[in-house]
Design a protein that fits this description.
By secondary structure, the protein is an alpha/beta fold. Helix content is about 45%, strand content about 10%. It is elongated and about 95 Å long.
């Protein structure tokens, strides 16, 4: 067996080609970029005429798919080459959804292929998501993880970053902390990359900080820890990269350091790389949303990953969700008690900005968050919203008018990360909406957005498709249906105006048109029925519930 790739000099490549043509090789590994050169296609023609090609094997076959996480245009031509060779074909991938599998078959021209699927469970891997709130906290958490894994003495770790700049800065910081760390990205010269990989292979460095340029074809059994210092753009990419841990079957850890700002980095990368293909950009954005959901969901990590690829498994019992833990120390049994005690000591001394204790918001806190969004005059970024709720008096918040928000400082006891996590959950539930892509902002579902004096029908418009009429306005013919100005609507509209005057609020902060419309449609008769109205939570029920039920009952009798 031999391989051909771009790292070899001309003489080495020629010698391997001679061995191929003389029958000295049973197996040749070659990258599609080399395979599809005019010179190599000529060699294949000769081999094909002599019936000396027995099998065409395509590894990392997900690269065929435009919708896959690692699309490479050269793979698109492999179907044409496969048909020309006319030999049995096998396509292999560890990270393909059902849609990607279908496209692989179509692109390669496989007719009724036999599909063999393995399981996605990796029982020796402990997956976890650990929140960080700043770049400094990210580095401190990474150092802590490397210490827990014993990376100063044994084993290996891979640290993935989204950008070359981040790779460089983190590698330098780790070296300054005494770790034998190398770095690898596509911007380095071929020689520099070869040296970095060789040093890692020979264990002269135990930590390799890299972009996704490092990994394809990499197989080191004793990688004890894979850390994603920044969130990747898809679950497919994450699973493939994290899966490089523990290939010898020994307990190993896969950790995602999650910061809300990392999603913005990925959005920029997606927009920059797919500016001319709106459909592909939409798919990439959808993949990013799935990745964000994985980070925020309190469901077994491996169960989430397996479900994404169409595989159903039981809870893994070893991830942070299953163990209800924020440390990978349990993976390394010999250090478990010592590390746990040290983390407990640090937790009493470390500022909240670098150590975040996650907990779900209470229903009352969620209503407070929604009330804060309802009080906005225009959409704002979710980080600004979180800082407002926590009581920050930053100059930027003052410029946005957020210091006057009635909910300013109401969630001082809640961490910024928990607020951001809840915002994402509310977006998924449809109670909040995200507006814009380059600079995403948050808005209340069902509330129109005023832009230059006009109501926008974009992301912030009412998700039900209803356009609300002004008081007394009759429905217009054609176009969207308009909400009927019924006795119930009139009664609740007058009610919210009275309450708004008494509380010093805007009317929509009491009840939005969407909520009034839902109450009008359902006409609830009990508190329990009222709480099931979308957008009408516990705090509004406690404050306005009984009065609203009386108004609805009275209006129905009119």
């Amino acid at each position: 067996a031999a391989f051909l790739n771009s790292s070899q000099d001309f003489d080495t490549a020629i010698a391997i080609e001679r061995r191929l043509m003389t029958g000295d090789l049973d197996l040749l590994y070659v990258a599609p970029e080399r395979l599809l050169t005019e010179r190599f296609l000529g060699l294949l023609d000769q081999l094909s005429e002599q019936h000396r090609v027995a099998l065409f094997a395509i590894d990392e076959a997900h690269c065929v798919s435009q919708w896959g996480h690692d699309f490479r245009p050269e793979y698109m031509r492999l179907g044409e080459l496969r048909r020309a060779l006319g030999v049995p074909t096998i396509a292999l991938t560890a990270t393909a959804t059902a849609d990607v599998l279908s496209e692989i078959g179509t692109s390669l021209g496989l007719l009724s292929p036999v599909t063999v699927r393995g399981g996605f469970a990796r029982p020796n891997l402990s997956f976890s998501v650990q929140p960080v709130t700043s770049d400094a906290a990210r580095v401190e958490k990474l150092v802590e993880l490397l210490e827990e894994a014993g990376l100063r003495k044994s084993g290996r770790a891979i640290v993935y970053c989204s950008t070359r700049k981040k790779v460089q800065s983190i590698a330098e910081e780790l070296r300054s902390r005494g770790f034998a760390a190398g770095h690898y990205h596509a911007g380095r010269t071929d020689l520099a990359r070869q040296r970095a990989q060789k040093a890692y292979e020979q264990r002269r460095t135990r930590v390799l900080v890299a972009t996704n340029a490092f990994g394809m074809g990499i197989d080191y059994g004793d990688v004890r820890l894979v850390v994603h210092a920044q969130m990747p753009g898809s679950l497919e990419a994450y699973y493939q990269e994290a899966g490089r841990a523990g290939r010898d079957g020994m307990p190993s850890a896969c950790v995602l350091l999650y910061r809300a700002a990392d999603a913005a980095v990925q959005r920029f990368i997606i927009q920059k790389g797919n500016a001319r293909n709106a459909r592909l950009m939409e798919r990439r954005m959808g993949a990013l949303e799935a990745m964000s959901r994985y980070a925020g969901n309190a469901t077994c990590r491996q169960k989430q990953l397996a479900a994404h690829f169409g595989d159903g498994i039981d809870s893994c019992k070893v991830c942070d969700v299953c163990l209800d833990a924020n440390s990978v120390a349990s993976v390394f049994a010999d250090a478990q008690e010592e590390v746990g005690a040290e983390r407990a000591r640090k937790a009493t001394k470390t500022d909240e900005r670098s150590t975040v204790q996650r907990r779900p918001l209470t229903p009352e806190e969620i209503e407070c968050l929604i009330d804060a969004v309802a009080a906005l005059h225009k959409p704002v970024g979710k980080v600004s919203l979180a800082k407002t709720l926590r009581g920050s008096k930053a100059r930027q918040l003052s410029r946005l008018g957020l210091l006057k928000n009635p909910m300013h400082g109401k969630l001082k006891e809640v961490t910024e990360f928990d607020i951001l996590d809840t915002v994402e959950a509310l977006i998924r539930e449809g109670r909040l909406v995200r507006k814009g892509q380059k600079y995403p902002t948050i808005w209340l579902a069902g509330r129109p957005v005023r832009e230059n004096g006009r109501i926008s029908e974009g992301v912030g418009s009412n998700s039900s498709g209803l356009a609300f009429a002004k008081e007394g306005e009759r429905p217009k013919r054609g176009g969207k249906s308009r909400m009927r100005y019924t006795p119930v609507f009139r009664a609740l509209d007058n009610f919210r105006k009275r309450q708004a005057r008494a509380l010093g609020w805007k009317s929509f902060m009491v009840l939005t048109n969407a909520v009034i419309g839902a109450i009008d449609a359902e006409k609830p008769a009990t508190i329990d029925a009222l709480t099931r109205i979308k957008g009408f939570g516990p705090s509004r029920t406690a404050r306005f519930g009984e009065e609203i039920l009386r108004l609805v009952a009275g209006a129905k009798d009119d």
